[in-house]
Design goal:
Layout lengths: L1 E2 L3 H10 L3 E5 L3 H14 L3 E5 L1 H7 L1 H15 L2 E9 L2 H9 L4 E4 L6 H16 L4 E6 L4 E2 L4 E2 L9 H11 L3 E4 L18 H10 L5 E3 L7 H9 L12 H9 L2 E6 L1 H17 L6 H24 L7
Parallel strand pairs: 1-4, 2-3, 2-11, 3-4, 4-5, 5-6, 6-9, 9-10, 10-11
Antiparallel strand pairs: 7-8
The protein binds glyceraldehyde-3-phosphate (G3H), 1,3-dihydroxyacetonephosphate and zinc ion.
Length: 310
């Protein structure tokens, strides 16, 4: 048990036609809910930390919580930097003990993306840390960057080949129609599986990553709305599409919005049903349980990663 890189997990996931879940973590209850689920499923697990998470919780608290989770669960866990903005942030995270980093220079022109990514790869590989990078632009909002739907661009398969060759990255995040947040599609959900297949054939040894892959579970949206929330028209990626992607070359599926919705739904429900309670443990407990249930469902029925812990 310990902090591990994703190399072996991805290799086995690609061979086995499943994907490893990468869950965004921001506090203790989120980490505990996810880890409890992964433990019961004996699943490989990536816990990822965004710039927003580092600002909110402070990297050191999150790393110590992840260390505690490893000790408590006996699981191997990948600690990953999500959407790293530059080499400075990557360096800090590697110094802090992260075993995997993402450099997201996807909003720069191709040559600049290659240059920045290659610099990160050289630094990280020299320290035994693996690197994910992104090519193409996902729509939606991340902490530092907002991309309007009309500015999103899908990953070009030929560019992907050149990008992987010139940078030496370990995994590639692709844009095929997913987006961050709770509003992924206006009408019928649609992903470009033809493009995904083509990329997979051209770079078969590079595990692919799907960002913006929450399913936006209707039960949680409905609970939020029932108990005073206002999240109309939220829609995620259908589960069968994620299963299909996992059977192709997608080895890592990123999930944050579903954690937020599960937690918020449970807290909203508790608050409305128990107006005289004011002990945070009373509502954070159900929130943690909701996260656990949701993650366990994903591992079993969507990612297919049960039993994949190294
Ligand atoms: O990629 C986006 C993730 O949902 C992280 O979002 O930067 O607000 O923590 P955040
Ligand atoms: P969601 O907003 O779909 O959960 O995506 C999260 C993500 O891609 C984190 O990098
Ligand atoms: Zn993302």
């Amino acid at each position: 048990m310990g902090l591990v890189t994703s190399t072996e997990l991805f290799r086995r996931a690609q061979e086995g036609g499943y994907a490893i879940g990468a869950f965004n973590v921001n506090n203790m209850e989120i980490i505990q809910g996810i880890v409890d689920a992964a433990k019961e499923e004996k699943s490989g697990l990536i816990l990822q930390v965004s710039a927003g998470a580092r600002k909110y919780a402070n990297s050191i608290y999150l790393r110590k919580l992840v260390e505690a989770a490893i000790e408590d669960s006996d699981l191997d866990i990948v600690l990953h930097l999500d959407h790293g903005e530059n080499l400075e942030i990557v360096k800090q995270c590697i110094d802090d003990g992260f075993t995997s980093v993402m450099i997201d220079a996807s909003h720069y022109p191709f040559e600049e993306n290659v240059r920045i990514t290659k610099e990160v790869v050289d630094y990280a590989h020299a320290r035994g840390v693996v690197v994910e990078a992104e090519l193409g632009k996902l729509a939606g909002v991340e902490d530092a960057v907002s991309v309007a739907k009309e500015d999103a661009t899908y990953t070009d398969p030929d560019e992907a080949v050149e990008f992987v060759k010139r940078t030496g990255i370990d995994s590639l995040a692709v844009a095929i129609g997913t987006s961050h947040g709770a509003y992924k599609f206006k009408g019928e959900p649609k992903l470009d599986f033809e493009r995904l297949e083509k990329i997979g054939k051209l770079i078969p040894n590079t595990p692919l990553v799907l960002h913006g892959a929450s399913t936006v579970l209707p039960e949680f949206v409905e609970l939020c709305n029932k108990y005073g929330g206002d999240i109309p028209g939220a829609q995620g990626v259908p589960e069968e599409m994620l299963r299909r992607a996992a059977q192709m070359n997608v080895a890592k599926i990123n999930i944050d919005t579903d954690l937020r919705l599960a937690m918020t739904a449970a807290i909203r429900q508790f608050m409305v049903e128990n107006p005289s309670e004011f002990d945070p443990r009373k509502y954070l407990g159900p929130a943690r349980a909701a996260i656990k249930g949701m993650v366990q469902h994903k591992i079993r029925n969507v990612l297919g990663s049960s039993g994949s812990n190294l």
